[in-house]
What does this fold into?
Amino acid sequence: MAEKEPRLSKISKMHYGKLVLRGSVFLAALAVYVPNRLRGAEGLYETFAGFTGLIPFVWVVFMADMICRMFPAKVDSMGSQKLFRKNYRPTGERPEHITVLPPARTALCAGSWFLLNGLIFILFFRGILDEGAMLVISLFYSVCDIICIMFFCPFQTWMMGNRCCTTCRIYNWDFPMMFTPLAFSRNVFLRCLFLVSMIVLIQWEVQLHRHPEYFSEQTNESLRCVNCEEKLCRHKKQLHSFWKRMRKAGKQLY
It folds into this structure.
């Protein structure tokens, strides 16, 4: 009798754990920041009074995550690990030109992100948003990052059209995107998060330029569905099926 496949893979469990952690930190930061800000508090440490360990905690957690991302790791998604030689299993196919994603779609992803954060920075430089708000926005982005992986990704659905996160062209853009609001922070710890995230991005883009064969399922056996042990797409498919049933039930009702 064949052994039943576990309902959740190790990678899925890891991401659910990250979702709980990041969601809890974001909600706690928001719950502290808003009332303090409404009382007229200014500056990072004043607006987060009562939650003084927030910045060191955020720095340690995300810095450790980014440093681990820079090296091969067994407990991480293949989507983020495909840039390393150890995860390259040649398929035998040797196309003349390997295009992981059409440049126009990559530019669309980058452009949409610059537009969104450009509007946020305008509010920041006009004094409408302060550094505390920018940190809260970054923490919100960190939650959205896991939601994109597990449930729904607007970049995948509306811009890239890739099959799943394993083949995602911009997977390791997550940290730079997450910490974009901290780019002009005067706090050395927060600014450091942004700078290290840029190192993650540079490493990713350099490897993509040097070894595009690592990033394509056409040339890398590790990225094909048959070899996937993560099954992260299962969560998105389940959610899609749920909404499909709900729409169908709604049409029958009315």
Q: What stands out?
A: The chain has a mean pLDDT of 91. The two ends are 46 Å apart (CA to CA).
